[in-house]
Amino acid sequence: MGNTCVASASPALLRKTHDPALKWKFYGFSALLDRGAVTANSALFHCCGYSWFLQVIPMHKRSGVEIPYVALCLCLCPQNKPIVIPKKPITVQNIFLQKKGFIKGTYTWTMNNFLDMKLPVLSPAFDVGGQKWHINMHPLGDKYSTNSLSLYLHLHGRKKLPLGSGMMIELTLSILDQKHGKHYIVTGRFVFATKAKSGWEWSNFVPLKTLMDPSRGYLVGSNCILKADATIIGSSNDG
């Protein structure tokens, strides 16, 4: 996603402690395990003048360790600039995970002039769970990418959600292989909340060299097909 996971802090940060900025509570955590080892990201929160998010890996596998375990990372957004944020109460994100009755949606975006695209482009809106979503694509990559196609998923009209509400989305983005059926697939889980940013990004979704390779089938002429499969697997409301 183009974000940085922080494994340690600099000595300068260790000289001063800060009150907790986020409490992320899962209800029905086993539902994540049931759906596989895909990572899940919290909504953004602010601490020490920067924006962060937590990332949990339900079944992390480490070299030399036979049994998978739950891993937790603190991640710093790369586009951060120091900002002054007034002291405020701890942010609490409650997510009630579901095991059945999922709300699903699929959207296919066909671009017939991909090679002519140089500037960022926004997909038509599509509906999942009564909410409107958009995919924002940077054909030549955003400023954080390294020669890669960049993709963003945005929730349209986030401010219209009930105050304090949130949802966890399991999203699979695929660039379809139009020749062999061996699609380029990326899956992730993300929290969208009223008090957080309205989108998640993959700055390095797919290397441009891979995308442009004629043998891969991702581009046929100037035709490129992007598919989004979204499932709401949890919300801040257990009703």
TrEMBL record:
This is MATH domain-containing protein. It holds the Pfam family MATH_2. It comes from Panicum miliaceum. PANTHER family: ANKYRIN REPEAT-CONTAINING PROTEIN-RELATED (PTHR46162:SF2), TRAF-LIKE FAMILY PROTEIN (PTHR46162). Residues 104-230 form the MATH domain. InterPro entries: MATH/TRAF_dom, TRAF-like. It comes from the Eukaryota.
